[in-house]
TrEMBL record:
<protein>
    <recommendedName>
        <fullName>Globin</fullName>
    </recommendedName>
</protein>
<dbReference type="GO" id="GO:0019825">
    <property type="term" value="F:oxygen binding"/>
</dbReference>
<dbReference type="InterPro" id="IPR009050">
    <property type="entry name" value="Globin-like_sf"/>
</dbReference>
<dbReference type="InterPro" id="IPR012292">
    <property type="entry name" value="Globin/Proto"/>
</dbReference>
<dbReference type="GO" id="GO:0020037">
    <property type="term" value="F:heme binding"/>
</dbReference>
<dbReference type="InterPro" id="IPR044399">
    <property type="entry name" value="Mb-like_M"/>
</dbReference>
């Protein structure tokens, strides 16, 4: 049997996490609870929409990391909406984002192990670095 790539491991893990309807609300509740500044950014947010967009974004991150041009284009658009002239998502927020999403996934994925964690770190770390370069 061929070994699963980090992308496969990540996408399968995302699938297991989002199969549990508590995963996305719990992530946002922890993330927004992490700082008043983060909370303020989401004061007008429709969270049902936000859950859908995050789920899609996670898949996008996997595509962008493996070089898919359409995913790259969309990540570049997100980098623009999140930069200092738009949503002004400060670099330190991304550290909290990454840590919180991985902590939440660890709890919700029953097959979590070191390889899965490395895959999450690698794929989301890659996209976060890209967003930060364009901040
Ligand atoms: C790689 C990381 C991230 C991805 C892929 C991502 C993706 C997205 C997407 C797809 C949207 C909706 C469309 C848009 O406005 O661009 C969005 C909106 C938003 N994101 Fe992010 N995001 C990321 C990190 C963050 C972080 C760290 C924060 C920190 C506070 C943040 C705050 C927001 C806010 C405030 C909105 C607007 C919500 C609203 O409509 O009220 N995002 N994000």
């Amino acid at each position: 049997m061929e070994e699963l790539t980090p992308k496969d491991l990540f996408l399968q893990s995302v699938g297991r996490c989002v199969a549990n309807e508590l995963f996305l609300p719990e992530f946002y509740s922890r993330f927004v609870g992490a700082s008043e500044e983060i909370q303020a950014r989401f004061r007008f947010t429709d969270f049902d929409q936000q859950y859908l967009m995050l789920r899609r974004s996670l898949e996008l991150c996997a595509g962008a990391t493996s070089g898919d041009p359409e995913s790259m284009r969309e990540i570049n658009e997100r980098a623009l909406t999140h930069d200092r002239d738009h949503l002004n998502i400060k670099p330190e927020f991304y550290d909290v984002w990454l840590e919180t999403i991985i902590d939440t996934a660890r709890i919700h994925d029953s097959q979590w192990d070191e390889a899965v964690e490395t895959a999450w770190q690698r794929i989301l770390g890659h996209v976060v670095k890209h967003m930060l370069r364009k901040y």
